[in-house]
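Reminder to self: tokens first, then the designed residues, so the page reads top to bottom the way the pipeline ran.
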């Protein structure tokens, strides 16, 4: 049996146009989805439960609308969902967010903590790792294959980390390392972050959608902490990128075009004279 917890974030659809107004991103009419990398983590949690038994809980920090993503996760097959109210967490600070999430996850005592490699909206991949640090968990990032095994199988798969020989179960993780793969063995409990290619996430079925309405979805607030647990960063401004300039067509032969391009780049200060 495995007690599995999945960190999940609701993000903009990757095809959605982002609008910034008065220093904030306008979400009112935007399509929001489960962060694609977190979908891989959730699918892997469901597959591990099917193989070993146990429970899958999903934990997310967000506002009321983030419950849409949690209900989708429940419809996919998760057993329970927990929403950490984002209004009680320092906005935009990964240190404060990881601290708050770790306090929610610690009582759950997961055997396996899964998360996406990074969030597609912010590009950040640090929150899950910070949570693992606070919980004292080893971790393996960018997994493209995950197998949970006993000690004998773990020894056959690779070298065990120091002090891990007494663990009852291990995660054998094949991880992406910039075009190649590396196999690592870590003792459970542990964190594993999911890379694209780990699996193909399932679609919620109609029975799953109906069952999701009856599954528990808890709402919690961040636990009060000392000053050392507060935000370490603050956002001074949020501005959209400058509008893209119109394209320019260069006439002449290839040699003349190349010479004109160099002249233009030098005139704009993008190339040394």
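Designed residues (273 positions):
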């Amino acid at each position: 049996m495995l007690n599995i917890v999945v960190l999940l974030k609701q993000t903009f659809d990757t095809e959605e146009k982002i609008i910034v107004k008065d220093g904030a991103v306008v979400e009112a009419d935007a399509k929001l989805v489960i962060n694609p990398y977190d979908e891989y983590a959730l699918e892997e949690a469901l597959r591990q439960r099917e193989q070993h038994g146990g429970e899958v809980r999903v934990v997310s920090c967000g506002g009321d609308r983030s419950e849409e993503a949690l209900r989708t996760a429940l419809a996919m097959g998760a057993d329970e969902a927990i929403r950490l109210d984002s209004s009680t967490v320092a906005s935009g600070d990964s240190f404060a967010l990881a601290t708050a999430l770790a306090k929610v996850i610690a009582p759950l005592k997961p055997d396996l903590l899964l998360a996406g490699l990074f969030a597609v909206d912010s590009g950040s991949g640090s929150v899950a790792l910070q949570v693992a640090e606070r919980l004292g968990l080893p971790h393996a990032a960018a997994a493209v294959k995950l197998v949970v095994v006993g000690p004998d199988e773990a020894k056959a798969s690779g070298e065990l980390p120091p002090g891990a020989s007494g663990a009852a179960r291990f995660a054998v993780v094949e991880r992406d390392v910039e075009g190649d793969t590396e196999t690592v063995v870590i003792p459970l409990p542990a964190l594993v972050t999911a890379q694209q290619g780990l699996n193909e996430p399932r679609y919620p079925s109609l029975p799953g959608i109906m069952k999701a309405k009856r599954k528990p979805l808890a709402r919690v607030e961040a636990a009060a902490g000392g000053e050392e647990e507060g935000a370490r960063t603050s956002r001074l401004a949020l501005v959209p990128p400058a509008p893209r300039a119109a394209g320019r067509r260069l006439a002449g032969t290839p040699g003349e075009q190349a010479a004109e391009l160099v002249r233009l780049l030098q005139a704009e200060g993008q190339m040394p004279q």
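The chain is about 30% helix and 25% strand.
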